[in-house]
Amino acid sequence: HYFGRKMDASDFEWVMWFTTFRNHILFALSGHVIFAKICSMVSPKNRSLIYMLYGSLAVLITMGWTYITLILSHCIILYSVALVKRKWLCFVAGLTSLATFKMEPFNTWQEGFVTGSFDLQDVLFYGGCGFSIMRCMSFALENCEKKDGNYSFIDLIKYNFYLPFFFFGPVMTFDRFHEQVSPVLRESNNFRTLEMWNITIHALVHLGAILVVDVFFHFLYILTIPSDLKLLKQLSDWSLAGLAYSNLVYDWVKSAVMFGVINTVSRLDHLDPPQPPKCITMLYVFAETHFDRGINDWLCKYVYDYIGENHDAIFKELLATICTFSVTTLWLGPCELVYIWSFFNCFGLNFELWVAKFFSLPPFSTIERNLMSEAMSRRIRGLFNAVNFWQIILYNVLALNSLGFAQLVTKRLLLKGFPLSTLSVLFVTYCGVQLIKERERRQSVLKTQDVFKCE
Protein backbone atom coordinates (compact mmCIF):
# COMPACT_ATOMS: atom_id res chain seq x y z
CA HIS A 1 0.00 0.00 0.00
CA TYR A 2 1.22 3.50 -0.90
CA PHE A 3 -0.73 6.39 0.67
CA GLY A 4 -3.54 3.97 1.49
CA ARG A 5 -3.97 2.83 -2.13
CA LYS A 6 -3.77 -0.79 -3.28
CA MET A 7 -1.40 -1.89 -6.01
CA ASP A 8 -2.47 -3.12 -9.43
CA ALA A 9 -1.09 -6.67 -9.24
CA SER A 10 -2.40 -7.91 -12.60
CA ASP A 11 1.05 -8.36 -14.15
CA PHE A 12 2.55 -11.54 -12.74
CA GLU A 13 6.05 -10.86 -14.09
CA TRP A 14 6.33 -7.45 -12.44
CA VAL A 15 5.00 -8.72 -9.12
CA MET A 16 7.34 -11.71 -9.28
CA TRP A 17 10.44 -9.64 -10.04
CA PHE A 18 9.94 -6.66 -7.77
CA THR A 19 7.62 -7.81 -4.99
CA THR A 20 7.17 -11.52 -4.25
CA PHE A 21 10.56 -12.92 -5.25
CA ARG A 22 12.58 -9.71 -5.31
CA ASN A 23 14.92 -10.83 -2.53
CA HIS A 24 15.52 -14.27 -4.07
CA ILE A 25 16.43 -12.80 -7.47
CA LEU A 26 18.65 -10.13 -5.91
CA PHE A 27 20.41 -12.76 -3.80
CA ALA A 28 21.16 -14.97 -6.81
CA LEU A 29 22.38 -12.12 -9.02
CA SER A 30 24.40 -10.51 -6.21
CA GLY A 31 26.02 -13.84 -5.46
CA HIS A 32 26.96 -14.19 -9.12
CA VAL A 33 28.51 -10.71 -9.20
CA ILE A 34 30.54 -11.20 -6.00
CA PHE A 35 31.63 -14.81 -6.62
CA ALA A 36 32.39 -14.30 -10.32
CA LYS A 37 34.29 -11.07 -9.72
CA ILE A 38 36.51 -12.53 -6.99
CA CYS A 39 37.25 -15.71 -8.92
CA SER A 40 37.80 -13.95 -12.25
CA MET A 41 40.29 -11.58 -10.57
CA VAL A 42 42.18 -14.58 -9.23
CA SER A 43 42.05 -16.49 -12.54
CA PRO A 44 40.86 -14.24 -15.41
CA LYS A 45 41.71 -16.88 -18.04
CA ASN A 46 39.12 -19.24 -16.54
CA ARG A 47 36.33 -16.72 -15.96
CA SER A 48 33.92 -18.39 -18.40
CA LEU A 49 34.42 -21.69 -16.57
CA ILE A 50 33.79 -19.95 -13.24
CA TYR A 51 30.56 -18.41 -14.56
CA MET A 52 29.46 -21.88 -15.68
CA LEU A 53 30.26 -23.50 -12.31
CA TYR A 54 28.38 -20.86 -10.33
CA GLY A 55 25.42 -20.96 -12.72
CA SER A 56 25.23 -24.76 -12.68
CA LEU A 57 25.44 -24.80 -8.87
CA ALA A 58 22.70 -22.17 -8.55
CA VAL A 59 20.39 -24.08 -10.93
CA LEU A 60 21.13 -27.34 -9.11
CA ILE A 61 20.31 -25.87 -5.69
CA THR A 62 17.19 -24.10 -6.95
CA MET A 63 15.63 -26.76 -9.17
CA GLY A 64 17.28 -30.06 -8.18
CA TRP A 65 19.44 -32.65 -9.94
CA THR A 66 16.59 -34.05 -12.06
CA TYR A 67 16.02 -30.65 -13.68
CA ILE A 68 19.67 -30.10 -14.51
CA THR A 69 19.84 -33.68 -15.86
CA LEU A 70 16.86 -32.92 -18.11
CA ILE A 71 18.55 -29.77 -19.43
CA LEU A 72 21.83 -31.62 -20.01
CA SER A 73 20.04 -34.40 -21.91
CA HIS A 74 18.63 -31.86 -24.38
CA CYS A 75 22.06 -30.22 -24.62
CA ILE A 76 23.69 -33.57 -25.43
CA ILE A 77 21.10 -34.38 -28.11
CA LEU A 78 21.43 -30.99 -29.82
CA TYR A 79 25.23 -31.07 -29.53
CA SER A 80 25.26 -34.45 -31.25
CA VAL A 81 23.11 -33.05 -34.05
CA ALA A 82 25.42 -29.99 -34.31
CA LEU A 83 28.36 -32.28 -35.13
CA VAL A 84 26.61 -33.32 -38.37
CA LYS A 85 26.80 -29.67 -39.53
CA ARG A 86 23.48 -29.62 -41.37
CA LYS A 87 21.44 -26.49 -40.65
CA TRP A 88 18.10 -28.02 -41.57
CA LEU A 89 18.74 -30.92 -39.22
CA CYS A 90 19.70 -28.51 -36.41
CA PHE A 91 16.44 -26.64 -36.93
CA VAL A 92 14.36 -29.82 -36.96
CA ALA A 93 16.01 -31.16 -33.81
CA GLY A 94 15.91 -27.79 -32.02
CA LEU A 95 12.29 -26.99 -32.82
CA THR A 96 11.27 -30.53 -31.88
CA SER A 97 12.98 -30.13 -28.50
CA LEU A 98 11.30 -26.74 -28.03
CA ALA A 99 7.91 -28.25 -28.92
CA THR A 100 8.30 -30.83 -26.15
CA PHE A 101 8.24 -27.96 -23.63
CA LYS A 102 5.40 -26.07 -25.30
CA MET A 103 2.86 -28.78 -26.18
CA GLU A 104 0.94 -31.45 -24.32
CA PRO A 105 1.50 -34.15 -23.22
CA PHE A 106 5.29 -33.82 -23.53
CA ASN A 107 5.63 -30.71 -21.35
CA THR A 108 3.64 -32.22 -18.46
CA TRP A 109 5.61 -35.45 -18.73
CA GLN A 110 8.96 -33.63 -18.53
CA GLU A 111 7.77 -31.34 -15.74
CA GLY A 112 6.95 -34.46 -13.73
CA PHE A 113 10.66 -35.23 -13.43
CA VAL A 114 11.21 -32.13 -11.30
CA THR A 115 10.43 -32.86 -7.67
CA GLY A 116 9.43 -30.35 -5.02
CA SER A 117 6.92 -27.54 -5.16
CA PHE A 118 7.35 -23.79 -4.70
CA ASP A 119 5.61 -20.76 -6.15
CA LEU A 120 8.26 -19.93 -8.75
CA GLN A 121 8.90 -23.47 -9.94
CA ASP A 122 6.74 -23.39 -13.10
CA VAL A 123 8.21 -20.08 -14.25
CA LEU A 124 11.80 -21.20 -13.67
CA PHE A 125 11.16 -24.61 -15.25
CA TYR A 126 9.72 -23.37 -18.53
CA GLY A 127 11.89 -20.26 -18.66
CA GLY A 128 15.13 -22.18 -18.18
CA CYS A 129 14.12 -24.96 -20.60
CA GLY A 130 12.88 -22.62 -23.34
CA PHE A 131 15.90 -20.34 -23.28
CA SER A 132 18.24 -23.35 -23.07
CA ILE A 133 16.81 -24.79 -26.30
CA MET A 134 17.18 -21.44 -28.09
CA ARG A 135 20.79 -21.20 -26.93
CA CYS A 136 21.50 -24.78 -28.00
CA MET A 137 20.05 -24.05 -31.44
CA SER A 138 22.26 -20.96 -31.73
CA PHE A 139 25.28 -23.07 -30.77
CA ALA A 140 24.39 -25.75 -33.33
CA LEU A 141 23.85 -23.24 -36.15
CA GLU A 142 27.10 -21.42 -35.37
CA ASN A 143 28.93 -24.76 -35.31
CA CYS A 144 27.64 -25.35 -38.85
CA GLU A 145 29.40 -22.11 -39.88
CA LYS A 146 32.69 -23.14 -38.26
CA LYS A 147 34.93 -24.32 -41.10
CA ASP A 148 37.72 -25.98 -39.13
CA GLY A 149 36.61 -28.54 -36.57
CA ASN A 150 33.81 -28.17 -34.00
CA TYR A 151 33.17 -26.27 -30.84
CA SER A 152 33.50 -28.43 -27.73
CA PHE A 153 30.65 -29.60 -25.51
CA ILE A 154 32.14 -27.58 -22.65
CA ASP A 155 31.71 -24.44 -24.83
CA LEU A 156 28.00 -25.20 -25.03
CA ILE A 157 27.73 -25.74 -21.26
CA LYS A 158 29.58 -22.49 -20.54
CA TYR A 159 27.22 -20.69 -22.88
CA ASN A 160 24.02 -22.23 -21.56
CA PHE A 161 24.67 -22.06 -17.81
CA TYR A 162 25.61 -18.39 -17.57
CA LEU A 163 23.25 -17.61 -14.68
CA PRO A 164 22.07 -14.04 -15.47
CA PHE A 165 20.72 -15.22 -18.84
CA PHE A 166 19.66 -18.74 -17.87
CA PHE A 167 16.08 -18.41 -16.56
CA PHE A 168 14.83 -15.10 -17.94
CA GLY A 169 17.06 -14.28 -20.92
CA PRO A 170 17.85 -12.29 -22.95
CA VAL A 171 19.26 -14.66 -25.57
CA MET A 172 22.74 -13.71 -26.74
CA THR A 173 23.77 -15.63 -29.86
CA PHE A 174 26.64 -18.06 -29.33
CA ASP A 175 29.12 -16.31 -31.62
CA ARG A 176 28.86 -13.06 -29.65
CA PHE A 177 28.99 -14.78 -26.25
CA HIS A 178 31.95 -16.99 -27.19
CA GLU A 179 33.92 -14.02 -28.44
CA GLN A 180 33.21 -11.84 -25.40
CA VAL A 181 34.06 -14.45 -22.73
CA SER A 182 37.35 -15.39 -24.41
CA PRO A 183 40.28 -15.65 -21.99
CA VAL A 184 42.07 -12.63 -23.46
CA LEU A 185 40.24 -9.45 -22.44
CA ARG A 186 40.46 -6.66 -24.94
CA GLU A 187 41.76 -3.40 -23.58
CA SER A 188 38.47 -1.69 -24.40
CA ASN A 189 36.80 -4.04 -21.93
CA ASN A 190 39.01 -3.07 -19.00
CA PHE A 191 37.09 -1.35 -16.28
CA ARG A 192 38.06 2.23 -16.54
CA THR A 193 36.44 4.80 -14.30
CA LEU A 194 34.21 6.06 -17.12
CA GLU A 195 32.89 2.58 -17.87
CA MET A 196 32.05 1.89 -14.24
CA TRP A 197 30.39 5.29 -14.06
CA ASN A 198 28.20 4.46 -17.07
CA ILE A 199 27.17 1.12 -15.54
CA THR A 200 26.33 2.86 -12.25
CA ILE A 201 24.22 5.46 -14.07
CA HIS A 202 22.32 2.72 -15.93
CA ALA A 203 21.70 0.87 -12.68
CA LEU A 204 20.36 4.03 -10.99
CA VAL A 205 18.12 4.80 -13.99
CA HIS A 206 16.61 1.32 -13.82
CA LEU A 207 16.12 1.63 -10.07
CA GLY A 208 14.36 4.94 -10.58
CA ALA A 209 12.14 3.42 -13.30
CA ILE A 210 11.20 0.56 -10.96
CA LEU A 211 10.17 2.98 -8.21
CA VAL A 212 8.19 5.21 -10.60
CA VAL A 213 6.28 2.29 -12.15
CA ASP A 214 5.64 0.80 -8.71
CA VAL A 215 4.12 4.07 -7.50
CA PHE A 216 2.08 4.46 -10.71
CA PHE A 217 0.62 0.99 -10.15
CA HIS A 218 -1.08 2.39 -7.04
CA PHE A 219 -2.80 5.17 -8.99
CA LEU A 220 -3.10 4.06 -12.64
CA TYR A 221 -4.81 0.68 -12.99
CA ILE A 222 -4.05 0.37 -16.70
CA LEU A 223 -3.73 -3.43 -16.56
CA THR A 224 -6.83 -4.20 -14.47
CA ILE A 225 -9.29 -1.87 -16.24
CA PRO A 226 -9.16 -3.71 -19.63
CA SER A 227 -10.40 -6.89 -17.94
CA ASP A 228 -13.72 -5.19 -17.05
CA LEU A 229 -15.65 -4.91 -20.32
CA LYS A 230 -18.66 -3.28 -18.65
CA LEU A 231 -16.46 -0.42 -17.45
CA LEU A 232 -14.69 -0.17 -20.79
CA LYS A 233 -17.97 0.37 -22.63
CA GLN A 234 -18.59 3.48 -20.53
CA LEU A 235 -15.23 5.06 -21.40
CA SER A 236 -14.80 7.63 -24.15
CA ASP A 237 -13.05 6.83 -27.42
CA TRP A 238 -10.01 8.86 -26.35
CA SER A 239 -9.81 7.02 -23.04
CA LEU A 240 -9.86 3.64 -24.79
CA ALA A 241 -7.18 4.75 -27.25
CA GLY A 242 -5.02 6.05 -24.41
CA LEU A 243 -5.54 2.85 -22.42
CA ALA A 244 -4.47 0.67 -25.36
CA TYR A 245 -1.40 2.83 -25.96
CA SER A 246 -0.54 2.82 -22.23
CA ASN A 247 -0.62 -0.97 -22.13
CA LEU A 248 2.05 -1.21 -24.82
CA VAL A 249 4.15 1.54 -23.22
CA TYR A 250 4.02 -0.30 -19.89
CA ASP A 251 5.05 -3.59 -21.50
CA TRP A 252 8.01 -1.82 -23.11
CA VAL A 253 8.99 -0.28 -19.76
CA LYS A 254 8.71 -3.68 -18.07
CA SER A 255 10.90 -5.33 -20.72
CA ALA A 256 13.43 -2.50 -20.63
CA VAL A 257 13.67 -2.61 -16.82
CA MET A 258 13.84 -6.39 -16.39
CA PHE A 259 16.37 -6.86 -19.18
CA GLY A 260 18.17 -3.74 -17.96
CA VAL A 261 18.72 -5.29 -14.52
CA ILE A 262 20.18 -8.45 -16.09
CA ASN A 263 22.21 -6.45 -18.61
CA THR A 264 23.77 -4.40 -15.80
CA VAL A 265 25.00 -7.61 -14.18
CA SER A 266 26.32 -9.00 -17.48
CA ARG A 267 28.12 -5.74 -18.26
CA LEU A 268 30.00 -6.16 -14.99
CA ASP A 269 31.19 -9.46 -16.49
CA HIS A 270 32.64 -7.62 -19.53
CA LEU A 271 29.76 -8.67 -21.81
CA ASP A 272 27.88 -6.52 -24.30
CA PRO A 273 24.33 -7.92 -23.95
CA PRO A 274 21.36 -7.29 -26.28
CA GLN A 275 20.03 -3.79 -25.76
CA PRO A 276 16.53 -3.06 -24.39
CA PRO A 277 13.75 -2.95 -27.00
CA LYS A 278 13.02 0.23 -28.91
CA CYS A 279 10.41 2.42 -27.22
CA ILE A 280 6.90 1.78 -28.55
CA THR A 281 6.39 5.53 -28.98
CA MET A 282 9.23 5.56 -31.51
CA LEU A 283 7.81 2.70 -33.59
CA TYR A 284 5.86 3.27 -36.77
CA VAL A 285 7.01 0.29 -38.86
CA PHE A 286 6.48 -3.41 -38.15
CA ALA A 287 10.07 -4.26 -39.08
CA GLU A 288 11.32 -2.61 -35.86
CA THR A 289 8.57 -3.89 -33.54
CA HIS A 290 9.73 -6.21 -30.78
CA PHE A 291 9.67 -6.44 -26.99
CA ASP A 292 12.63 -8.81 -26.54
CA ARG A 293 15.67 -7.74 -28.53
CA GLY A 294 17.51 -10.98 -27.74
CA ILE A 295 14.84 -13.19 -29.33
CA ASN A 296 14.43 -10.63 -32.12
CA ASP A 297 18.18 -10.76 -32.90
CA TRP A 298 18.07 -14.57 -32.81
CA LEU A 299 15.12 -14.73 -35.22
CA CYS A 300 16.60 -12.15 -37.58
CA LYS A 301 20.02 -13.82 -37.72
CA TYR A 302 18.91 -17.42 -38.20
CA VAL A 303 15.50 -17.14 -39.88
CA TYR A 304 14.26 -13.75 -41.11
CA ASP A 305 17.46 -12.32 -42.66
CA TYR A 306 18.73 -15.75 -43.71
CA ILE A 307 15.62 -16.46 -45.82
CA GLY A 308 14.59 -12.92 -46.74
CA GLU A 309 18.15 -11.76 -47.55
CA ASN A 310 17.80 -8.06 -48.52
CA HIS A 311 13.98 -8.11 -48.00
CA ASP A 312 13.21 -6.68 -51.43
CA ALA A 313 11.59 -9.71 -53.05
CA ILE A 314 7.90 -10.10 -52.19
CA PHE A 315 7.80 -13.91 -52.20
CA LYS A 316 11.05 -14.29 -50.27
CA GLU A 317 9.80 -11.80 -47.70
CA LEU A 318 6.51 -13.66 -47.40
CA LEU A 319 8.32 -16.94 -46.83
CA ALA A 320 10.74 -15.32 -44.36
CA THR A 321 7.94 -13.78 -42.28
CA ILE A 322 5.86 -16.98 -42.27
CA CYS A 323 8.85 -18.99 -41.05
CA THR A 324 9.78 -16.32 -38.49
CA PHE A 325 6.32 -16.11 -36.96
CA SER A 326 5.96 -19.89 -37.05
CA VAL A 327 9.04 -20.17 -34.83
CA THR A 328 7.75 -17.29 -32.69
CA THR A 329 4.39 -19.02 -32.25
CA LEU A 330 6.14 -22.15 -31.03
CA TRP A 331 8.34 -20.07 -28.72
CA LEU A 332 5.36 -18.27 -27.15
CA GLY A 333 3.31 -21.47 -26.89
CA PRO A 334 0.72 -22.42 -29.54
CA CYS A 335 -2.80 -21.25 -28.67
CA GLU A 336 -5.63 -19.36 -30.37
CA LEU A 337 -4.53 -15.92 -29.14
CA VAL A 338 -0.94 -16.46 -30.28
CA TYR A 339 -2.16 -17.68 -33.68
CA ILE A 340 -4.19 -14.48 -34.15
CA TRP A 341 -1.29 -12.29 -32.96
CA SER A 342 1.17 -14.02 -35.30
CA PHE A 343 -1.17 -13.79 -38.30
CA PHE A 344 -1.80 -10.05 -37.96
CA ASN A 345 1.84 -9.16 -37.31
CA CYS A 346 2.95 -11.34 -40.22
CA PHE A 347 0.38 -9.60 -42.41
CA GLY A 348 1.48 -6.15 -41.19
CA LEU A 349 5.12 -6.84 -41.98
CA ASN A 350 4.30 -8.00 -45.51
CA PHE A 351 1.74 -5.26 -46.11
CA GLU A 352 4.47 -2.66 -45.46
CA LEU A 353 6.56 -4.16 -48.25
CA TRP A 354 3.58 -4.39 -50.62
CA VAL A 355 2.71 -0.72 -50.11
CA ALA A 356 6.36 0.33 -50.51
CA LYS A 357 6.66 -1.69 -53.71
CA PHE A 358 3.43 -0.27 -55.10
CA PHE A 359 4.43 3.36 -54.54
CA SER A 360 7.91 2.74 -55.93
CA LEU A 361 6.33 2.15 -59.35
CA PRO A 362 5.67 4.92 -61.90
CA PRO A 363 3.98 7.37 -61.82
CA PHE A 364 4.28 7.57 -58.00
CA SER A 365 8.07 7.28 -57.96
CA THR A 366 8.37 9.87 -60.75
CA ILE A 367 6.12 12.35 -58.94
CA GLU A 368 8.03 11.92 -55.69
CA ARG A 369 11.42 12.28 -57.34
CA ASN A 370 10.65 15.26 -59.59
CA LEU A 371 7.81 17.21 -57.99
CA MET A 372 8.18 16.73 -54.23
CA SER A 373 10.67 18.12 -51.78
CA GLU A 374 12.23 15.84 -49.18
CA ALA A 375 10.09 17.43 -46.45
CA MET A 376 6.85 16.95 -48.41
CA SER A 377 7.73 13.33 -49.13
CA ARG A 378 8.35 12.79 -45.43
CA ARG A 379 4.97 14.34 -44.54
CA ILE A 380 3.07 12.09 -46.94
CA ARG A 381 4.89 9.02 -45.68
CA GLY A 382 3.96 10.15 -42.18
CA LEU A 383 0.26 9.71 -43.04
CA PHE A 384 0.83 6.02 -43.76
CA ASN A 385 3.09 5.69 -40.72
CA ALA A 386 0.34 7.10 -38.45
CA VAL A 387 -2.06 4.40 -39.63
CA ASN A 388 0.71 1.83 -39.24
CA PHE A 389 1.34 2.98 -35.66
CA TRP A 390 -2.21 2.11 -34.64
CA GLN A 391 -2.05 -1.18 -36.48
CA ILE A 392 0.99 -2.06 -34.35
CA ILE A 393 -0.88 -1.10 -31.17
CA LEU A 394 -4.07 -3.00 -32.02
CA TYR A 395 -2.25 -6.11 -33.27
CA ASN A 396 -0.11 -6.32 -30.12
CA VAL A 397 -2.57 -5.25 -27.43
CA LEU A 398 -4.61 -8.39 -28.03
CA ALA A 399 -1.62 -10.49 -26.94
CA LEU A 400 -0.80 -8.26 -23.96
CA ASN A 401 -4.37 -7.99 -22.70
CA SER A 402 -7.26 -9.79 -24.33
CA LEU A 403 -8.96 -10.30 -27.67
CA GLY A 404 -12.14 -8.69 -26.32
CA PHE A 405 -10.33 -5.48 -25.36
CA ALA A 406 -8.62 -5.26 -28.76
CA GLN A 407 -11.96 -5.79 -30.56
CA LEU A 408 -13.66 -3.10 -28.48
CA VAL A 409 -10.91 -0.53 -29.14
CA THR A 410 -10.98 -1.34 -32.86
CA LYS A 411 -14.77 -0.97 -33.11
CA ARG A 412 -14.81 2.31 -31.19
CA LEU A 413 -11.99 3.91 -33.18
CA LEU A 414 -12.88 2.66 -36.66
CA LEU A 415 -16.67 2.26 -36.62
CA LYS A 416 -18.56 4.00 -33.82
CA GLY A 417 -16.02 6.81 -33.46
CA PHE A 418 -15.74 7.54 -37.18
CA PRO A 419 -15.06 10.19 -38.39
CA LEU A 420 -14.42 12.51 -35.40
CA SER A 421 -12.57 10.19 -33.01
CA THR A 422 -10.80 8.32 -35.80
CA LEU A 423 -9.44 11.38 -37.55
CA SER A 424 -8.55 13.26 -34.36
CA VAL A 425 -6.59 10.30 -32.97
CA LEU A 426 -4.82 9.84 -36.31
CA PHE A 427 -4.01 13.56 -36.45
CA VAL A 428 -2.35 13.52 -33.02
CA THR A 429 -0.50 10.34 -34.01
CA TYR A 430 0.60 11.94 -37.28
CA CYS A 431 2.08 14.90 -35.41
CA GLY A 432 3.94 12.52 -33.12
CA VAL A 433 5.28 10.50 -36.05
CA GLN A 434 6.53 13.70 -37.72
CA LEU A 435 8.42 14.65 -34.56
CA ILE A 436 10.04 11.20 -34.46
CA LYS A 437 10.96 11.29 -38.16
CA GLU A 438 12.46 14.76 -37.75
CA ARG A 439 14.51 13.54 -34.79
CA GLU A 440 15.73 10.56 -36.80
CA ARG A 441 16.63 12.86 -39.72
CA ARG A 442 18.72 15.11 -37.48
CA GLN A 443 20.48 12.12 -35.93
CA SER A 444 21.28 10.83 -39.42
CA VAL A 445 22.73 14.22 -40.40
CA LEU A 446 24.89 14.31 -37.27
CA LYS A 447 26.20 10.79 -37.92
CA THR A 448 27.04 11.72 -41.51
CA GLN A 449 28.94 14.79 -40.31
CA ASP A 450 30.86 12.67 -37.80
CA VAL A 451 31.86 10.25 -40.56
CA PHE A 452 33.18 13.07 -42.72
CA LYS A 453 35.14 14.48 -39.76
CA CYS A 454 36.73 11.07 -39.12
CA GLU A 455 37.75 10.82 -42.77
UniProtKB/TrEMBL annotation:
MF terms (GO), sorted A to Z: acyltransferase activity
Main localisation: endoplasmic reticulum
Keyword Transmembrane: yes
Location relative to the cell: Endoplasmic reticulum membrane
The keyword Transmembrane belongs to this UniProt entry's keyword annotation: yes
Entries under InterPro entries matching the protein: MB_O-acyltransferase, MBOAT_fam
Transmembrane segments: 20-39, 51-79, 197-223, 380-398, 418-436
Any GO CC annotation of this UniProt entry: endoplasmic reticulum membrane
Membrane topology reported for the UniProt record: Multi-pass membrane protein
Keywords: Endoplasmic reticulum, Membrane, Transmembrane, Transmembrane helix
Family named by the database record: Belongs to the membrane-bound acyltransferase family. HHAT subfamily.
Name of the molecule in the record: Hedgehog acyltransferase like, a
